[in-house]
Design a protein that fits this description.
Layout lengths: L1 E6 L17 E2 L2 E2 H10 L6 E6 L4 H11 L6 E4 L4 H11 L6 E6 L7 H14 L1 E7 L4 E5 L2 E6 L5 E3 L3 E4 H11 L9 H7 L5 E4 L10 H11 L1
Parallel strand pairs: 1-4, 1-6, 4-5, 7-12
Antiparallel strand pairs: 2-3, 6-11, 7-10, 7-11, 8-9
């Protein structure tokens, strides 16, 4: 069984909006619904679980029922931090889960082709994430001045869904709870414990909507 774990716990602070970004409507439809469609309609996804802020669970359930009435989408409450939210989602997976795809709810432009390619590679490699090459010159800055130019030949942007063997990522997420370290994504947990993580090249179209300009770009694309 392949499970899509949709992380919908963002606060929307950078969006400068009172409404959490995953619930912002674009052309009359919440952003979360656009993202869910990519997984609910994919033939290789057997189960979709949404991890929602605890006080938004009922609203999230309402969105799922309105836009996907034929789907049995599970909605569960997250935690105070993303890592706890992911663990809650992993605990909710069926014991017969083989692969879990952990995806940001505010990345609505993931393609069916990318999902399929990640699944195929993860069946072999056990841990795969999509990455796009950094395109701009990177500067290291401190105290108002540029310290150095960072070579970008080996620098990549990490995207989602990040796809893992279920038992592998669950095991190391639990181990990570005992470590005083700030993990910025799920693959960084495996990296910390020196477990190989592989990448699949992708482009920047699968961008994360976090700031007002991202929302404007998304509106134009979805139009």
């Amino acid at each position: 069984m392949n499970v899509a774990l949709i992380m919908a716990g963002g606060s929307g602070r950078r969006m400068q909006s009172n409404l959490k970004k995953q619930y912002i409507e674009i052309h009359g439809k919440p952003l979360l619904a656009y993202t869910l469609a990519k997984f609910c309609e994919h033939s290789e996804i057997d189960k979709v679980i949404v991890v929602s802020p605890e006080n938004d669970v009922n609203g999230t359930i309402a969105i799922c029922q309105e836009y996907f009435p034929q789907q049995e989408i599970m909605v569960i409450p997250g935690g105070a931090e993303r890592q706890i939210s992911v663990i809650n989602g992993l605990k909710a997976c069926s014991p017969d889960t083989s692969l879990v795809l952990i995806h940001d709810a505010v990345r609505p432009f993931v393609t069916a082709e990318l999902i399929s390619e990640l699944i195929a590679l993860a069946k072999i490699k056990k841990a795969v994430i999509p990455c796009s090459p950094v395109r701009y010159t990177i500067k290291r800055i401190a105290d108002g001045r540029i310290l150095e130019t960072v070579p970008r030949q080996e620098l990549y942007n990490a995207h989602t869904p990040q796809v893992f063997d279920y038992e592998l990522i669950y095991k190391y997420h639990q181990k990570a709870l005992q470590v005083e370290y700030k993990f910025t994504d799920d693959s960084s947990i495996l990296e910390y414990f020196q477990i190989p993580v592989y990448y699949l090249p992708c482009d920047d179209s699968n961008f994360k909507i976090t700031q007002p300009q991202d929302l404007q770009q998304a509106k134009l694309i979805l139009k």
